[in-house]
Design brief:
The complex is a heterodimer of chains A (163) and B (342). In chain A, the strands form two sheets. Chain A has a five-stranded mixed sheet, with helices on one face. A two-stranded parallel sheet of chain A has the order 6-7. Helix content of chain A is 24%, strand content 26%. Chain A has four helices and seven strands; from the N terminus they run αββαββββαβα. Chain B is mainly α. Helices cover 44% and strands 10% of the residues of chain B. Classes of the chains: A alpha/beta (163), B mainly alpha (342). At the A-B interface, β3, β4 and α4 of A face α2 and α9 of B.
Chain lengths: 163, 342
């Protein structure tokens, strides 16, 4: 089988990942706690960083991409699993009303649908994505991105003051 | 900043490869026939649920498929955003109605991570027990569904007989047959009713006996079954990892990965079980993986029943759950694969 799963001690593996990233990029923050290595990078270097993770460090699985609308900026988190207990959590912040970030599909083809959903729900565009259509919402006549904080739903009033 | 590009929908397909045929619509094969675009769904008798598929057919072979998924999008994230923490659990039930305890488990793990809550050991044991019963109640009918698709009606009856009995257990414990709402932040809703441990044990023993004749001997090795599943839908481990598959579909290609073992949660680090893999990666392999996983679930249930601790099933979480702003994370192995909640 051509797939090689990582071996060895979890802590040394996480250290190896950190060194691998630091050899190529300036990390804004990094911290290893438990089974997770958390790093913060600037959005410009993100696609290249994911390529390093896949090609050089052989981290096989992109688990998810999440976006958080911080009203004015977007926080994007990528979680990579090495399938043997190690997690790498990569976080980046992009500014602006119409945010754009490089695509992860070249390193992890599975990011295709994750990025389509992120675009659908938050309006975050992924430059270089091969097929950035909306997977869930109407593809025409719908100019909203429903998970933005500015998109209000009617039940909101029901719970106001209860929190 | 990069310019946002307007994407031309028609020229691209799901995998991002430009369709040869759409780029050159005049291409025909040696018989002068061209590939055909066909729409399937959103409502179709052969479809389990609302899903529209745009298929590109070459004769009777589907060469490309583009799913349109929005018909069943229920905006659960947005609803959850405006609810209080415990009120989200019933929503998670409805994500996968056939194996919903796993969804609840992932969500409550995430909130408990945010709260740094300590869960009583009996609650953890009950969670693992119920998760495995749920896995059985999902894997066994999936074997039946597979045979139903192949045109064999008998296995679905055996499979649903077992699911029915498992549902009786789930109903006795949780009070509901489908939408359980059983796992709570800090524990579970209620303790097992009196005599339930013995009842589950008895049922599991019986299931173990019936499993081989009803769901294995009847199917495995049958010439018709082999003819229609071997080398059908073959997936290589490389392609599976590229697509980000998890769960039984990934394991049937030979990649040895299970959240329960590699990222253990609840009590899974205390029980002993094997991660089942298969080399072939076809439909038959995925059937074999599910069969073997059912037997592993039975093994886990027996271990949990033997070491079931006494005590509380709910931690004291206060009257209203108000975690500080932050983030929590939970990941569980559901019947369909890895299910992370943030």
């Amino acid at each position: 089988m051509a797939i090689t799963l990582p071996e060895g001690d979890l802590d040394t593996r996480l250290e190896r990942y950190l060194e691998g990233f630091q050899g190529h990029f300036e990390l804004e923050e990094h911290d290893a706690k438990g089974n997770a290595l958390r790093i913060v990078v600037d959005p410009a270097s993100l696609p290249a960083l994911l390529a390093v993770a896949r090609e050089e460090l052989n981290i096989l699985h992109l688990s998810f991409i999440t976006v958080v609308d911080r009203q004015g900026s977007f926080e994007i988190t990528y979680e990579l699993l090495d399938l043997r207990g190690g997690r790498v959590i990569i976080r980046t912040t992009i500014e602006g009303e119409e945010p754009v970030i490089g695509t992860a599909t070249r390193a992890y083809p599975t990011a295709n649908w994750h990025e389509r959903e992120a675009y659908d729900m938050f309006g975050v565009a992924f430059a270089g994505h091969p097929d950035l259509r909306r997977p869930y919402m109407w593809q025409d006549h719908f100019d909203h991105h429903p998970l933005l904080k500015s998109f209000e739903i009617s039940t909101r009033r029901t719970f106001e003051g209860l929190r | 900043m990069l310019e946002r590009e307007r994407v031309d929908f028609l020229d691209h397909t799901l995998t991002g490869r430009r369709s040869e045929r759409l780029a050159r619509p005049d291409v025909r094969d040696e018989f002068g026939l061209e590939a055909l675009d066909m729409n399937m769904g959103p409502q179709h008798p052969a479809m389990h649920g609302l899903l529209r598929l745009i298929l590109e057919l070459d004769g009777e072979t589907v060469v490309r498929c583009d799913p349109v998924m929005g018909y069943l999008h229920r905006c659960q994230e947005k609803i959850a955003e405006n609810r209080m923490y415990p009120a989200v659990i019933p929503l998670t039930d409805r994500l996968d109605y056939f194996a919903n305890l796993h969804n609840e488990h992932g969500y409550v793990l995430a909130v408990e991570d945010l709260l740094d809550a300590e869960i009583p050991p009996r609650a953890e044991a009950i969670r693992v027990l119920m998760s495995e019963i749920m896995r059985l109640a999902s894997h066994i009918p999936s074997i039946g569904f597979l045979m139903l698709e192949l045109g064999a009606f008998t296995p679905i009856l055996y499979a649903f007989r077992e699911r029915e009995r498992l549902q009786n257990i789930l109903e006795a414990v949780t009070g509901a047959r489908m939408m359980f709402h059983y796992f709570r932040i800090g524990g579970v809703k209620a303790d097992l009713p009196p005599g339930m441990v013995e009842e589950i044990w008895e049922y599991i023993e019986g299931l173990e006996e019936r499993f081989q004749p009803d769901l294995v001997d009847l199917i495995q090795g049958s010439e018709i079954f082999v003819g229609r599943t071997r080398n059908v839908g073959t997936m290589t481990p490389e392609a599976a990892l590229e697509m980000g598959l998890t769960g039984p579909p990934l394991r049937c290609t030979g990649v040895d990965f299970d959240i329960r073992r590699d990222y253990p949660y609840s009590w899974y680090d205390r029980v002993d079980f094997d991660v089942i893999t298969d080399e072939a990666g076809d439909v038959e392999a995925s059937y074999r993986v599910r069969v073997a996983e059912c037997l592993q679930s039975i093994k886990i249930i027996k271990q949990i029943l033997q070491m079931m601790p006494e005590g509380e099933v709910m931690a004291d979480m206060g009257r209203r759950i108000r975690p500080a702003e932050g983030e929590g994370f939970g990941r569980v192995e559901s019947a369909r694969g890895s299910s992370p909640s943030t």
